[in-house]
Amino acid sequence: MAKFLIHASYVGEGVVGLLKEGGTSRRKAVEKAAEALGGHLESMYYAFGDTDAFVVVDLPDNVAAVAASLMANATGTVKASYTVLITPEEVDQAAEQGRRIAAAYRAPGQ
């Protein structure tokens, strides 16, 4: 499973729907959508500022994340962007691979 941070902002009728249905109803909808993609909702928080909600989901892969993004953004009621979250252990693995390929890499202009 891959972990994603979703930045969501309600627009237009999305704000009206949030006022009508409340926050827990939206959490249930996000939970069902994640499960339909083979994943699960880890957490969801509302916030002040440019982003109305921060959501962390586990999804099977990038394809599932793109599907979720397309579905949500196509409604026109929310603007959602996704950030791939990487564990410290994955950074360790990436650093090891980086050290292995360092000799084979040539920087631009060198």
Keywords:
4 helices, single chain, 110 residues, Alpha-Beta Plaits, 45% helix, alpha+beta, elongated, four-stranded antiparallel β-sheet
Could you tell me the number of beta strands? 4
Strand content: 25-35%
Indicate the overall shape.
Answer: elongated
Report the span from N to C terminus: 39 Å
**Class computed from helices, strands and strand pairing:** alpha+beta
CATH class: Alpha Beta
Q: What percent of residues adopt helix (DSSP H or I)?
A: 40-55%
Topology as a string of helices (H) and strands (E): EHHEEHEH
Largest sheet: 4 strands, antiparallel
Mean pLDDT: 95
What fold name goes in the CATH topology slot? Alpha-Beta Plaits
The neighbouring-strand order within the major sheet is: 2-3-1-4
What is the overall number of helices?
Answer: 4
Total domain count: 1
General description of the model:
With 110 residues, the chain is an alpha+beta fold. The chain has a single domain (2-104), classed as Dimeric alpha+beta barrel (Alpha-Beta Plaits, 2-Layer Sandwich). The protein is 45% helix and 28% strand. It has 4 helices and 4 strands, in the order E-H-H-E-E-H-E-H. It has helices spanning 13-21, 23-36, 62-74, 88-101, and strands at residues 2-10, 40-46, 53-59, 78-85. The protein has a 4-stranded antiparallel beta sheet. The longest helix has 14 residues, at 23-36. The protein is elongated, with a radius of gyration of 18 Å. The N and C termini lie far apart (39 Å). The model has no long low-confidence stretch (mean pLDDT 95).
